[in-house]
Design goal:
The complex is a heterodimer of chains A (about 240) and B (about 775).
Chain A: E1 10-21, E2 24-35, E3 39-43, H1 50-58, E4 65-70, E5 73-74, H2 80-90, E6 91-94, H3 106-116, H4 121-134, H5 150-162, E7 168-172, H6 180-195, E8 199-203, H7 207-213, E9 216-221, E10 224-230
Parallel strand pairs in A: 3-8, 3-9, 6-7, 7-8
Antiparallel strand pairs in A: 1-2, 1-4, 4-5, 9-10
Helix pairs in contact in A: 3-4, 3-5, 5-6
Chain B: H1 2-14, H2 16-43, H3 46-53, E1 59-63, H4 70-75, E2 82-98, E3 101-112, E4 124-128, E5 136-140, E6 158-161, E7 166-174, E8 182-184, H5 186-192, E9 196-203, H6 209-222, E10 228-233, H7 234-276, H8 279-287, H9 292-332, H10 342-369, H11 372-380, H12 385-395, H13 401-412, H14 414-449, E11 456-462, H15 473-482, E12 486-499, E13 506-512, E14 524-527, E15 535-539, H16 540-546, E16 553-558, E17 561-571, E18 578-582, H17 583-589, E19 599-606, H18 612-621, E20 627-628, H19 634-668, H20 670-678, H21 683-723, H22 730-733, H23 738-765, H24 768-773
Parallel strand pairs in B: 3-8, 5-7, 13-18, 15-17
Antiparallel strand pairs in B: 1-9, 1-10, 2-3, 2-6, 2-9, 4-7, 5-8, 6-7, 11-19, 11-20, 12-13, 12-16, 12-19, 14-17, 15-18, 16-17
Classes of the chains: A alpha/beta (about 240), B alpha+beta (about 775).
The structure holds adenosine-5'-triphosphate and magnesium ion.
GO cellular component, one term (chain A): membrane protein complex
GO molecular function, one term (chain A): ATP hydrolysis activity
Pfam families (chain A): ABC_tran (PF00005)
Chain lengths: ~240, ~775
Amino acid sequence: MNDATQPPPVLVSMDGLRKEYGDTAALDGVSLQIRRGEAVAVMGPSGSGKSTMLNMIAGLDRPTAGAVTVDGKDLNGLNETGRALFRRRTISMIFQFFNLLDDLTVLDNVALAAQLTGVRAQQARQRALELLDELGIADRRDLYPAALSGGERQRAAVARALVNRPALLLADEPTGALDSHAGEQVMDLLIDLNQIGQTLLIVTHDPNLAQRCASRIVEFADGRIVGERTLERTP
Amino acid sequence: MSAVWRTARASMRRRRFQTAVIALVVMFSSGTVVAALALLAASSGPFDRVFAEQQGAHLTATFDPAAASDAQLESTADLDCVAEAAGPFGQLATTLAVDDDAAVEFPATIAGRDDPAGPVDRLDLWEGRWAAAEGEIVLNTAPADPGDPGAPLPVGATVRAGDGTVLTVVGHAYSFGQTADAWVTADQLEAMGPTAVQMLYRLDDHDTAADVEAGLDAVTAAVPAGSLTGAQSYLALKERISAELGIFVVLLTVFGVLGLAVAVLIVANVVSGAVVSGLRHIGVLKAIGFTPRQVVWVYLTMVSLPALVGAAIGTVLGHFLAAGAMSETFREAGLGNPVVSPWADAAAFVGMPLLVLLAALAPAMRAHRLSAAEAISAGSAPRSGRGLRAHRWLSGTPLPRSVSLGLGLPFARPGRTALTATAVALGVTTATFTAGLAAFATEIDGLIQRHEAAQIEVVGGPGGPSGATGLGDQETQDLLASLPGASEVTANLRMPVTAAGFVQSAELWFIRGESSRMGFTDQLVDGRWMDGPGEAVASSKTVHENDLAIGDDVTLELGGRTATVTIVGVVMGSGTGTVYADWSTLTDLTADVDGLGHPISYEVRLEDGTDPQEYLTALTGAGLTGQSTRQSDAVSIAVVGLATMFALMLGTVAALGVFNTVALNARERRRDLGMLKSIGMTPRQVVTMMVTSMASLGVIGGLIGIALGVVAHREILRLAAAASQIDMPASALATWNAPQLALLALAGLAIAIAGAYLPARRAARLTIAEVLHSE
Ligand SMILES: Nc1ncnc2c1ncn2[C@@H]1O[C@H](COP(=O)(O)OP(=O)(O)OP(=O)(O)O)[C@@H](O)[C@H]1O
Ligand SMILES: [Mg+2]
């Protein structure tokens, strides 16, 4: 339907976003728009507010001032329950340290996220298994996270993030805890996902990751956007 | 809901230890609550309960059978003030001797009754059967376990009545109202020649002495003049029983309330520990889309499921424990066989899980409020500067590095530190308090029974001992003193005497001999023990009731003669009108002590190291029977036993709570441990550090706990005693001594160390990679 000249619709929109922790401002007036299908990398020194911004987009925390709109929904207008319900279907996150539930097996970790949206247990496990298979860790499905390698854990986390087919995938240093080989694999995974239309927002210190995955790089410093450039993807 | 259930179930499965601790704490608590509630129910008004169970007689009247006909007596049942009546039953005052041992003879009132039941005085026929034929007799005995010392005559034994009739014991029944000492069939009694007939009445109005008096007047007016020969009100018996049980009821009440309070506090502590240690878990749940409400449900399920299981098991165990303990305590006191009310069961089974839910609600609401971002980061690393400063200061001290690091750890996470220290303090407070109560029970028991001072009691009849010695009163006392091992012997005669200015008549206790050596001095709450003629000591209740003070004179009057005594001391005791006086006061009041018709008993204090059993044997050899005072106080033995049981149960709950909190705290630090090992700490240093950190909390919590426990013990007992108008000697409240307290403090420390040591050692054994790997 889309005319080739018309840009895809905006998925995430931040306007004058500000977040204070006591005296320090972690975010100091951030405005940014992300369109559907884009892959945006956020880079910047440690403590510059990158994770904080991600938390605001995911609705994990409330901004002190400013607005965040995701898929046309103003997150400030939702209470915590509303944000949880919205997050389930629209936004997924992967973390540097995976944050899998230690008490559940890999399969259950992934299936649980699907069950939250009302999918029945049987179906949820089926979908989880398909994803694990695609990500190449189906044989690890009955192990607990503690028994997996870092790369395997991150792939399980990606499977969990994808199980509800989210409009937006947020990744906070997804390769930060992995060696270069495992990091490569996760990177390839993200590129493939973007190729089939998944919108990505990746926080990273790794210029290589940013170069390879992103179509746009946003530079952060002291809670502000200090630079932005669009890339020609090098396949 | 199923995502919630799945998550909660997985969490419970993976945190088996914590789940088990919650179940165990709730189990012990529910058990304690059932037992406590049952005891409270049973011991509040034990008299009224048993009296009501037996439909006891408010008024027992005896008549001259020659002056009033049976029909005339039966018609008194129709009087307006009479609710129910039983009788007339023939009655005979005689003696009973054990047939094959003529030496053991005791005075007895035998009544003729064909039926142990009836509208009034329903007897508890607890062994054998009722007398059905001539030659059979049922003895009035408080239920006891067979084989107990002082057990009654066995069924099948024969006794000989004063008129020579030989009777076979066919059963034992218990009349709480003590309407007779034994029963035979009506025909049998007729054959023996009754000296009186008795009527038993339950009255519509019976609350006060005046009510019962009015009932008696109505009965007297309805029968031929002069036919009433005696009457007894149930209120006298009630006085006596309440006086004996008073202090113990206070004690059990305190235990019951304490059990409830401790259970609630410790459950709350354990539950909030579970939530605090699950912060990161909460954050992750929220990040993947659990609503705040769902997170709350996960946590409530995680604690209430084990709580339900624990409550079920605990209620059943507590039920049987309480039933067993109570039936012993109360049966031996002649207070019937109370059942554990289903209310107690229900309250524990429903109430404890509800309490757990309530306790979990506060921390669960915290989980509700916490933003996901905050929860995830709170779970992973401390970000407090206080910890750093403390570390820096400690590292400047000459302590080993692992110790100074361990001492600094608690500063890094003040919230968790407070929780752990609270758990230790709570545990030690409980242990201190309960150990104090148990010691107090023993102490007060010793004070009341005086069995450290007066080890042997010989009960005699009027004018001297019963039995075949043929000795007079003074001769008996001399004989007792001459037996080997005797250190001091006193003769005691108790009787009501009119005292000027007393609201009721005084219950005088005349003592001949060195009464100051018989343990009374320990009972003093004020003044001194009497020291010769003209002096007297009163129970504290007597002093309160009659507004007396030390130095007051009291004029006693008996049969027209008077004697004046000066109050020189006050002893603990809830006996109404109890006054102790010297024997010379008795001889001032009457010239004929034997003619008073009141039995004289003797108390013997043995020389140190004398075996009471040996003395009793010598006593029997001399033709007298006595008993050890220690054996006769089954009630207090049972109460002390119960107190100890409570102390143990509450102590276990407290220990579990402490262990759980410490272990949780230690487990959480595993990642820190891996980190420290990665920078070169040895496993031994890691364990030292962990144990030091928890031990420092153990010491602080322990000290606070002991201080609180001692204060609580003193203040709560003082309040309870004041509420029940019982004064206690200071010695009874000061049951503490330094070694005991030190031991309790050490116990708290030991639990904290044990709770830290096990998880620390496990963590120390893991390779660095494993610890860091498992996040
Ligand atoms: N929960 C919090 N409480 C207090 N301060 C916080 C909190 N979260 C973040 N901050 C502060 O906000 C600032 C930005 O933190 P943020 O985690 O967003 O940085 P970052 O850019 O993700 O850094 P890194 O690259 O090291 O992950 C920092 O100064 C941090 O100390
Ligand atoms: Mg970050």
